[in-house]
Amino acid sequence: ALMCEGSLPNRGRFGKEVDRVLEYVLSNCHENGLILYAPSASRGPMYEHGFATLFLAECYGSSPRDDLREKLSRAVRLIISTQNDEGGWRYLPQRLDADISVTICQIMALRAARNAGIHVPRDTVERCVEYVKKCQNPDGGFRYMLIPGESAFARSAAGVVALFSAGIYEGPEVEKGIEYLSRFIPEPGVIRQEPYYFYGHYYCAQAMWQRGGQLWERYYTGIRDELIEKQQPDGSWTDPISPEFATAMALLVLQIPNHYLPIFER
């Protein structure tokens, strides 16, 4: 969220804070490549690993730290090595089952790493694309896993962004996915109780931003006004996960038009 404002490690308004986060993340990089604070305290280590790898990739090139490239490369190799036979990833760094929510974290991290000059095998990306496409339902939304299941907002937004992260910007899967997401564009006076509100809009905003045009304008106007209305007097946002999570996600969504983060480039 701070980097989306334009700050980089030791550069910009929040440069010191970003550098402290970088130091913290690098201090939790393990020899096997996994980035994790406390294995015993995590229910989904690959969520943490995916987001942390994405962060390191976005910092790469803007920090003089000698250990950044090696730790980022190890993190990328772990993602590649734990992709399962279906083409996706799951909670643990093991080649077992997969779900679309963890998979999007990994493919976004790989896209950011590739943008930063780290090698990512084409086969890894292509297998992920096939997995994501197989998770799409006839209504255009995406289910959680390959087994039959209903479409839902957050995972459908994740599915579309997973395709974009893999370089798939056109095709029937993308068109159907965008059409499904357009049903969830915030509108004045319309109250929706979608689960994983902030997590879903974090991905939906990226999907709409990449699509651009009038659809993006309509979406951004709606989500901007809705988030401003939801903001607390102290400047934060609230969510059952935590106010820190909600606030970071809200700021990411609101600042996408700044166009500072490489991962948000069109």
Account of the 3D structure:
The protein is mainly α and 266 residues long. It folds into two domains: 1-134, no CATH class; 162-266, no CATH class. It is built from ten helices and no strands. The protein has helices at residues 15-27, 45-59, 68-81, 100-115, 122-134, 153-165, 172-181, 197-211, 213-230, 243-255. α2 crosses α3 (68-81) and α6 crosses α8 (197-211). The longest helix is centred in the C-terminal third of the chain and has 18 residues, at 213-230. The radius of gyration is 18 Å and the shape is globular. 41% of the residues are buried. The model has no long low-confidence stretch (mean pLDDT 96).
Chain-wise SSE layout:
Elements: H1 15-27, H2 45-59, H3 68-81, H4 100-115, H5 122-134, H6 153-165, H7 172-181, H8 197-211, H9 213-230, H10 243-255
Kindly summarize this structure in a few lines.
The protein has 266 residues and is an all-alpha fold.
Distance between the termini: 19 Å
- Element order, helices and strands? HHHHHHHHHH
Mean pLDDT over the residues: 96
Class of secondary structure makeup: mainly alpha
Gyration radius, in Å: 18 Å
How is the biggest beta sheet arranged?
Answer: none
Query: How many distinct helices?
Result: 10
Number of domains: 2
The amount of helix comes to 40-55%
Strand content: under 5%
Spans of 5+ residues with little confidence (pLDDT < 50)? none
